[in-house]
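Box 3.1 A note on notation
Throughout this textbook, protein chains are presented in two layers. The first layer is the amino acid sequence; the second is a token string describing backbone geometry. Keep the layers aligned when reading.
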Amino acid sequence: RLHAVFQWLANLCLARQGLLPGSGVRVGLATQADPFALAVDAIDEASGDPVTASWRLLMSLLRRYDGQEVNYEYHRLVCDTILSTDTRIRLPTQLAAALTRHYPAALLRSYMKHNLLQSAAFLAVSMVRRAGAQLEATQRQQCLPFNQFDILLKALAAYEQHDYNESE
């Protein structure tokens, strides 16, 4: 499958932004033995901005090769690759929007996995509001990840308790 390609591209994007120090990811100087890197370098030369070109290429390939038929696994992989690098890195808007629209439960799990409780809480509220609006508009119920909501509420309560104990 394409897991290695998407992980490589995500790391390349992070490296080109200076967010992946010492990664060993090549930023240019492609060799004949690596045709994918040659293609990326050719796109860079055409666009003039390697950072923008890398992110644009990554998002374009995600739109083309990822979707409901593969359960948005490459979107999830890229999201996890970015958040595993450093949780202070914001997800690209297009990536977060695509996951929020098509697979919000996976984004919620990823936020919780990386202890991004505030982002997870905002997403959970958004999911509930969206489900409520859909129910009002179409009378169709939407499945919500209540188990994830319970885990999130417990994590938020533990964080609040820890924060309260710290302030005493």
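The radius of gyration is 19 Å. The first helix runs from residue 3 to 16.
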